[in-house]
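Lab manual, section 2.4: Encoding a predicted structure.

Procedure: take the sequence of the chain (498 residues), apply the prediction step described in section 2.3, and record the output as structure tokens. A sample record is shown.
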Amino acid sequence: MMQPLIEMKQVTKEYRGVPAVTRVDFVLQKGEVHALLGENGAGKSTLTKMMCGVTQPTSGEMLLNGKPVSFQTPAEALDNGVAMVFQETSLVPSMTVAQNLYLGDENLFNRIRGLNIAAQTFLQSLNFNVNPTALVSGLGAAHKQMVEIARAVRKNVQVIIFDEPTASLTPEEKRHFFSLVDRLKKSGVSIIFISHALEEALAIADRITVLRDGELVASDLASNFDRDKIIRAMVGRSLSNSLYRHQTGHGARPVGEKVLSVQNVSMGTIVRNTSFSIYSGQITGMFGLIGSGRTEVAKIISGVVKRNFFNGGEIRLRDRSVRYRVPRQAMKDGIVYVTEDRKTEGFFETMTIPENLYMGALAAGLTGQVVNMAEMRAIAAQWTKTLNVKAINPNARVIELSGGNQQKVVISKSLVQKPKVIIFDEPTRGVDVGAIAEIHAFINRLADEGLAVVVISSYLPEVMNLSDRILVCRSGRVVEEFAPEEATDEKIMFAAVH
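Recorded output:
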């Protein structure tokens, strides 16, 4: 057996006396792709953050090339050849893509044009279609993820840890990413791959390790796993029969009242003369590739962005023409948008769970002008129980929660506002299979209770499982509609691409 590149021995990490990782052993060999799987809160990110110097273990040790190491900062880990691409990007929003790529490696004198050309060449070599002169603050989640990946690859490190790298990527972009992983592996770089897409882990990993509740429960060659075995290890039971069950004609809900009508809505070149309707008591799925305009039209409906003033089309809410300048106006009319970018747009990270939920009620004008602490605690207790939000304590800051529990807080904050129309944009992005099942069940319950629900997703099995009708977006407009019984992966993808 070769000497491991990284070896974690009996590593434990505690926060406020509560263990996040308990006596975990982990081995990464040179030139292998090692998938690290588990539910949100299982300890995956905590374990990898100890490897790259973001945090230090409470006990145990880490060996790099057989030598004990203890990285105090990510910069120290990077100097020793260990880099991490975080699930939530760590880019500088006010800088361009090129500046972020070369941040920390600048020459004494820099020519902006030369920097942009070098960045363009490098991004093209990775098949990443990102403008090097664009400000990061103006990029979508998918392009930010590409820049993060490119920045790590450019460092020529020996270990790259990818935390949910494909969560925002389209199928085509994922293929480019997997090709990149294969090239890195052949060049001797070791990859740790954290993902909730189990099929991806099974396809690209040489070895798979599963954590549950901070403890190692399984570690073996990927060839000895299948999807059901991974899920049983992750959650202690099988979810394969229910997680992505295809809707049938008998299971689809009947068409209810037409609540929302979008007629020839346009916004610049991103949304172009798109039209569709939304009905109460139904889940309308929206599928499209990055840049198809699906998120932008949802933001127009909910007042986050504005459509063209002239020739911008019309939005009718129960036969009343509406044009919202800010989301608060849409909230008062019962329209709520649950963002795809929870960290930037979904919650206040330094506030506690109760404070975040209460902010949702304040924004919708459902409370008085003076903060009522008893009301805040009651709202938090109700919604954390309803969505099964798990935290170290009821007053934990949202930034301290796992990704799945953060997403539940974002959803709860929106539902506090008592919407009649709710738009979920990538509701299970970066969420584990256990939390996915809970969120899907809750979305279904909202539709059963009569709400008009829209689910925007890049993941076809999710769209096909949840939707009572499926809208496909391409080039800024809705181009096709499918009933669940007639929809197939091939038909939907063909409509999205062609």
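Check your result against the sample. The two ends are 50 Å apart (CA to CA).
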